[in-house]
């Protein structure tokens, strides 16, 4: 009887999470696009729902809510469903949508996507070989095999993102690093941009007029193609040679267009920096600035961390870590999505994001075990089997360090280059 | 080249609707072979005969400014884009017939270009019930073009075309539906070609021949940074 009550509680919360994921998808991610394939939205929401349920079960574990046997059952079930989604459904659909975008292969979508999925499975399986993640007594198709591999990918991802985030967050919010951008800088760049556009326009006018005159004279403009064509056009002079050489002008235009793109991006960058400066003067901005200092100290400390503290981190911190990492992940995913998606690729990208999100959450569960007080670790160990947890922690630390150091290097170089660019007249 | 006068027309719309292909078709009478991302703004020039076939025929250069991006871009990108919206003489709004959102976003695009001082939240709240009076007052010539007509199945065509007719009516503009990969839609003498020609004629007329009666109201150069930004074009 109590099992039924417990199950209904868990299932209700799952439905709530599903609804939240659905709304997030509709309102945030896809607000500028049209949802034509509802399967994508459903998969995303389901992945989100089951991932959140895992965290919920951890909290229940710590608080001692619900019957322990029903908790165990739901853990297992949740895990199975998530693995099913992450290993079978999402990769298959990603392959399917990628192939659908390519016009040529449209007819044989299904068999080709099956082929792609099999390739994915092959590499996924091979992933387990170089890592000491299992004890040899496990069978081939057991949960441990699959989780261990998902865990490796997810932990690597997490460590890369955390390393970069640990460095980037203070860099972005701490006012010490914000370059001073004045309105005159922006105006100067805009003036350059418009001047470049004007030069492009005047050249295009010449080309358009030349084309029209040639068309009216009844000449057909042969684009010199291939090596011999170019050679020929260089050696022989075109009839009516007062006509400007169109290919030369086209090359100049190409170079100028590239310049205009650069100027556009630089101007957008300056506007973004200016907004950040203004934001840093607000109350919210000051708060994040303080957090930035706090987190940078925390991250430095974590890099050189001593084992001493880990046992004593209370489950409140576990809760905070869970909530902030979910929120941080969703925000980062949204920004990323806006930056790179288009109406054609939006489906593929959302599915990729769902995959990353699922793997991220699964590996969070693996890693969170470290932050939990001893008595609560047993359920995770019980459910996930005998994975070599220590390996994951060491692997996380290594990748985190590598990622953080390379981000520091990268940001340092980018920071140094930038002021010189804008000082140039 | 100063002998021919200058006219600037914006081409706006969501990314991926086919603005670059359209501009290429209009200016070079050729299909664009390898469409790719437009970063910033790309310009092309069309040589247009104003009042073709009449004694007052005169040749003009029409600059088509194809502004890339989406309505949901970061505000820094929007601020940068705004520099292209100065002294515009006409706007072509492009939407994808297979994507309803791109048609809806045209309201936001036109607001962004026409009223740069208007707070965008107002438009979002009244999306769909946007301010008709704004467009009734509007003096800027508009043209609505729907692309990817070939991808609409025969059976759905009527429904789609009704929807776009309403859209064009809202903007008080002419509309054209075509496929940018097929030049026959704009073949000389076709009704589409006539509509485009009429649109450009209207733009030129507003720019050069109605000057004394009324300067185009409602589009002052943007006041930024406390001062007016002088027009940087060499007229």
Automatic annotation (TrEMBL), chain A:
<feature type="transmembrane region" description="Helical">
    <location>
        <begin position="38"/>
        <end position="63"/>
    </location>
</feature>
<dbReference type="InterPro" id="IPR025969">
    <property type="entry name" value="ABA_GPCR_dom"/>
</dbReference>
<dbReference type="InterPro" id="IPR022535">
    <property type="entry name" value="Golgi_pH-regulator_cons_dom"/>
</dbReference>
<feature type="transmembrane region" description="Helical">
    <location>
        <begin position="350"/>
        <end position="372"/>
    </location>
</feature>
<dbReference type="Pfam" id="PF12430">
    <property type="entry name" value="ABA_GPCR"/>
</dbReference>
<comment type="similarity">
    <text>Belongs to the Golgi pH regulator (TC 1.A.38) family.</text>
</comment>
<feature type="transmembrane region" description="Helical">
    <location>
        <begin position="315"/>
        <end position="338"/>
    </location>
</feature>
<dbReference type="GO" id="GO:0032580">
    <property type="term" value="C:Golgi cisterna membrane"/>
</dbReference>
<feature type="domain" description="Golgi pH regulator conserved">
    <location>
        <begin position="142"/>
        <end position="207"/>
    </location>
</feature>
<feature type="transmembrane region" description="Helical">
    <location>
        <begin position="147"/>
        <end position="169"/>
    </location>
</feature>
<feature type="domain" description="Abscisic acid G-protein coupled receptor-like">
    <location>
        <begin position="308"/>
        <end position="416"/>
    </location>
</feature>
<feature type="transmembrane region" description="Helical">
    <location>
        <begin position="392"/>
        <end position="413"/>
    </location>
</feature>
<feature type="transmembrane region" description="Helical">
    <location>
        <begin position="75"/>
        <end position="98"/>
    </location>
</feature>
<feature type="transmembrane region" description="Helical">
    <location>
        <begin position="6"/>
        <end position="26"/>
    </location>
</feature>
<protein>
    <submittedName>
        <fullName>Golgi pH regulator isoform X3</fullName>
    </submittedName>
</protein>
<dbReference type="GO" id="GO:0008308">
    <property type="term" value="F:voltage-gated monoatomic anion channel activity"/>
</dbReference>
<keyword id="KW-0472">Membrane</keyword>
<dbReference type="InterPro" id="IPR015672">
    <property type="entry name" value="GPHR/GTG"/>
</dbReference>
<dbReference type="GO" id="GO:0051452">
    <property type="term" value="P:intracellular pH reduction"/>
</dbReference>
<keyword id="KW-1133">Transmembrane helix</keyword>
<feature type="transmembrane region" description="Helical">
    <location>
        <begin position="290"/>
        <end position="309"/>
    </location>
</feature>
<feature type="transmembrane region" description="Helical">
    <location>
        <begin position="110"/>
        <end position="127"/>
    </location>
</feature>
TrEMBL record, chain B:
<comment type="similarity">
    <text>Belongs to the small GTPase superfamily. Rab family.</text>
</comment>
<keyword id="KW-0547">Nucleotide-binding</keyword>
<dbReference type="Pfam" id="PF08477">
    <property type="entry name" value="Roc"/>
</dbReference>
<comment type="subunit">
    <text>Homodimer. Interacts with GPR89; the interaction stabilizes GPR89. Interacts with RAP1GDS1.</text>
</comment>
<comment type="function">
    <text>Required for KRAS signaling regulation and modulation of cell proliferation. Regulator of KRAS prenylation, and probably prenylation of other small GTPases. Required for lymphocyte development and function. Not required for myeloid cell development.</text>
</comment>
<protein>
    <recommendedName>
        <fullName>Rab-like protein 3</fullName>
    </recommendedName>
</protein>
<keyword id="KW-0342">GTP-binding</keyword>
<dbReference type="InterPro" id="IPR027417">
    <property type="entry name" value="P-loop_NTPase"/>
</dbReference>
<dbReference type="GO" id="GO:0005525">
    <property type="term" value="F:GTP binding"/>
</dbReference>
């Amino acid at each position: 009887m109590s099992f039924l009550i417990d199950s209904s509680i868990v299932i209700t919360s799952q439905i709530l999470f599903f609804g939240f994921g659905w709304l997030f998808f509709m309102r945030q991610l896809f607000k500028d696009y049209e949802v034509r394939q509802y399967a994508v939205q459903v998969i995303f929401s389901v992945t989100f729902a089951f991932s959140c349920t895992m965290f919920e079960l951890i909290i229940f574990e710590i608080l001692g809510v619900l019957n322990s046997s029903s908790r165990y059952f739901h853990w297992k079930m949740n895990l199975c469903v998530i693995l099913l989604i992450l290993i079978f459904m999402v990769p298959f659909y990603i392959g399917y949508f990628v192939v659908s975008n390519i016009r040529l292969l449209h007819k044989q979508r299904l068999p080709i996507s099956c082929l792609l999925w099999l390739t994915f499975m092959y590499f996924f399986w091979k992933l387990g070989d170089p890592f000491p993640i299992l004890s040899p007594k496990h069978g081939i198709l057991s949960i441990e095999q699959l989780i261990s591999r998902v865990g490796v990918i997810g932990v690597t991802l997490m460590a890369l993102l955390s390393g970069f985030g640990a460095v980037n967050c203070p860099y972005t919010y701490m006012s010490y690093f914000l370059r001073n951008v004045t309105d005159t800088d922006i105006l100067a760049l805009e003036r350059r941009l418009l001047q470049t556009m004007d030069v492009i326009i005047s050249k295009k006018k010449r080309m358009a007029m030349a084309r029209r005159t040639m068309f009216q004279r009844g000449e057909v403009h042969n684009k010199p193609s291939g090596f011999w064509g170019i050679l020929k056009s260089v050696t022989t002079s075109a009839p009516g040679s007062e006509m400007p050489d169109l290919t030369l002008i086209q090359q100049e235009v190409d170079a100028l267009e590239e310049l205009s793109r650069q100027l556009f991006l630089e101007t957008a960058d300056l506007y973004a920096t200016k907004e950040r400066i203004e934001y840093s003067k607000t109350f919210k901005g000051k708060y994040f600035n303080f957090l930035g200092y706090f987190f940078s100290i925390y991250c430095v400390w974590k890099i050189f961390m001593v084992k001493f503290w880990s046992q004593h981190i209370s489950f409140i911190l576990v809760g905070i870590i869970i909530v902030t990492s979910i929120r941080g992940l969703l925000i980062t995913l949204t920004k990323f999505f806006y930056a790179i998606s288009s109406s054609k690729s939006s489906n593929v990208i959302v599915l990729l994001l769902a995959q990353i999100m699922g793997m991220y959450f699964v590996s969070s569960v693996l890693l969170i075990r470290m932050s939990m007080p001893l008595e609560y670790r047993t359920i995770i160990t019980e459910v996930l089997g005998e994975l070599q947890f220590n390996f994951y922690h060491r692997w996380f630390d290594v990748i985190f360090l590598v990622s953080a150091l390379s981000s520091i290097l990268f940001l340092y170089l980018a920071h140094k280059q930038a002021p010189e660019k804008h000082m140039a007249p | 080249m100063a002998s021919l006068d200058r006219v600037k027309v914006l081409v706006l719309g969501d990314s991926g609707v086919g603005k670059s292909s359209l501009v290429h078709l209009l200016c070079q009478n050729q299909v664009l072979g390898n469409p790719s991302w437009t970063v910033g703004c790309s310009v092309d020039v069309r040589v247009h005969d104003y009042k073709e076939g009449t004694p007052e025929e005169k040749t003009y250069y029409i600059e088509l400014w194809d502004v890339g991006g989406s309505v949901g871009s970061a505000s820094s990108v929007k601020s940068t884009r705004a520099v292209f919206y100065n002294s515009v003489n006409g706007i072509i709004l492009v939407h994808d017939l297979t994507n309803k959102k791109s048609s809806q976003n045209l309201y936001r695009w036109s607001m962004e270009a026409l009223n740069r001082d208007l707070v965008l939240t107002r438009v979002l709240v009244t999306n769909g019930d946007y301010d008709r009076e704004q467009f009734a007052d509007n003096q800027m010539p508009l043209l609505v073009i729907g692309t990817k007509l070939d991808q609409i199945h025969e059976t759905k065509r009527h429904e789609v075309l009704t929807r776009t007719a309403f859209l064009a009516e809202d903007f008080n503009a002419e509309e054209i539906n075509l496929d940018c990969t097929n030049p026959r839609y704009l073949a000389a003498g076709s009704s589409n070609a006539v509509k485009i020609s009429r649109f450009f004629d209207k733009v030129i007329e507003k720019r050069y021949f109605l000057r004394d009666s009324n300067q185009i109201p409602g589009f002052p150069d943007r006041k930024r940074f406390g001062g007016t930004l002088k027009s940087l074009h060499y007229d």
